[in-house]
Amino acid sequence: MSDCRKKGVFELNQKTEVDARGLTCPKPVIQTKKAMDQLTSGIVTTIVDNDTARENVIKYAKSQNFRYEVKQADGFYYIDIYKTEVMFDAEIMPQPKPKLSEIVILVGKNTFGEGDETLGEVLIKGYFYTLTELEPYPKSILFVNSGVQLTVEGSPVLEHLRLLESTGVEILSCGTCLDYYKIKEKLAVGGVGNMYAIVETMHKAKNTIRI
């Protein structure tokens, strides 16, 4: 290894392409972030096919203080994002475990938002997918009323909830609610809690987000 590399030099030595054409929000940004995280230094070119995706990827680049360039060709946008990293001759350290915040999320139904139920089903999947991509993760996620339907077999977000649980996030479903919907035996992630445990968890949290 050269002396200049030991002292630290800026290098751009990798190029990655993310084809996000046809993907809905927030996937273009998430895939771009994953590609950037894998780079020590280099360029990620994200290709998108609409103005909203372009602006969202640009906002991500700005938020991380990455330099970027946007080109347009054949009806598509090509966003070049540059990452530089000081290289050191140092021992590789183990990856730390994901951090948990003091936030608790209370899920009161099996869709996201008010209005069209079909849209709400799409949004709830997008919400939990995005939640797995952002740190720090919440300390606990509490499910009540029809929200408990998201923690049982066949849930569209089961994979995401299991991933969150594996990082230390507490997943707790209301036992009364599971009984009401007759689905307690189908519980596939997390544990069963009573109202006391749910209220206690919310009281101990610095902030509770209800969706």
UniProtKB/TrEMBL annotation:
Q: Which domain of life is it from?
A: Bacteria
Q: Which Pfam families match?
A: TusA
| UPF0033 domain span | 18-42
Q: Which InterPro entries match?
A: DsrEFH-like (IPR027396), Se_metab_YedF (IPR019870), TusA-like (IPR001455), TusA-like_sf (IPR036868)
Q: Which PROSITE patterns match?
A: UPF0033 (PS01148)
Q: Which family does it belong to?
A: Belongs to the sulfur carrier protein TusA family.
- Protein's UniProt name: Selenium metabolism protein YedF
Its ancestry begins with:
Bacteria, Bacillati, Bacillota, Clostridia, Peptostreptococcales
